[in-house]
């Protein structure tokens, strides 16, 4: 597949590295030679200095033969314009990063499709969804709802109160049990488990279940004593914070601590809501945190632009008694360190955005792709096509590669777990987990 990426910034360079490993034909365009040099010589791709809104630059990059054009510069107008030009010059599909929430409305997206933009992405809005999914369940590191909760994936840190430790999964998670363990992160290793694998203390385990059995999962992992989040403290009042706070349930009371006085005034204007309080101050100021009631706060969310600040702030909040912490960590090199410090939920906008763009590379009918950063694994929602390989045999006889497991499916709006004897039918929406496997190797089973 031929792919052009416009913008050698955080999302663009991360995507370029990710896609070049998949042996795609990548061209990265940027106006800055310095930005392009930062991609390094270890990536198999072409770089081009030029403006993505230049017709000549686009033609020189071969846009007329491009399968996917991705515009992820920091400038919204550049992304929109270059995507429209790319489509009209022959690109099959286009993606543009935007910063205006108005553009994400369904009617607006249809309007942009008519102009030639196949998909719009707003990374801050995607991150806000992940943040709120975590806050709604204080005992869960990561939550992903499929088909409005017909299936639910829960990433849970296992601690001393867990009832299902040190027991083969075949004894505790059989075909008749209401959950499957689809992935385990243990230290630096990711395990796609079989029947003889066991859950260990401090594992990060990924459970697939249905909405009805979430209370049961909470009980067996020993998290019933975790209180629900009603008070949230947010450090940093940037765009991600704004989108997250606007999407918070009404029962949550929120305080935003922002050190820039002008930004505080702006936040007061756009967040005119009686359950949101804007505080001018430094979120690292422990006396300020104490004065604002951090010891009675159930969740602390650090969303400044500095990963080190966010990590340290979450560690401080934990030591002051906050059970649920969320940190924005944009530097990928810091992610493993944050996990080893038991920070809690980690948010990385470029990885979230990359997951949404990655699904456009697949020829199969893919509803969603997510990268589980903590487990270094992908989870995708495939639609099984008529006469596809996956519908020919029971799951146990499909010959899926090592590192792949099917966690569940949705049929006619109803979620169900998958066992070896399950027969997938055309039209089923199937959840597939992959570790160290190119998703393109999996899609052939579904088309």
From TrEMBL:
Superkingdom field: Bacteria
SUPFAM superfamilies to which the protein is assigned, alphabetical: NAD(P)-binding Rossmann-fold domains, TrkA C-terminal domain-like
Domain RCK C-terminal: 141-223, 367-447
Keywords on record: Ion transport, NAD, Potassium, Potassium transport, Transport
Family matches, as Pfam families: TrkA_C, TrkA_N
UniProt key word Phosphoprotein: no
PROSITE patterns reported for this sequence: RCK_C, RCK_N
Ligase listed as a keyword: no
Domain called RCK N-terminal: residue spans: 1-121, 229-347
NCBIfam families per the UniProt record, alphabetical: PRK09496.2-6, PRK09496.3-2
PANTHER family: POTASSIUM CHANNEL PROTEIN 2-RELATED-RELATED (PTHR43833), TRK SYSTEM POTASSIUM UPTAKE PROTEIN TRKA (PTHR43833:SF5)
Protein known as: Trk system potassium uptake protein TrkA
Gene source species: Segatella sinensis
Lineage, highest ranks first: Bacteria, Pseudomonadati, Bacteroidota, Bacteroidia, Bacteroidales
Gene: trkA
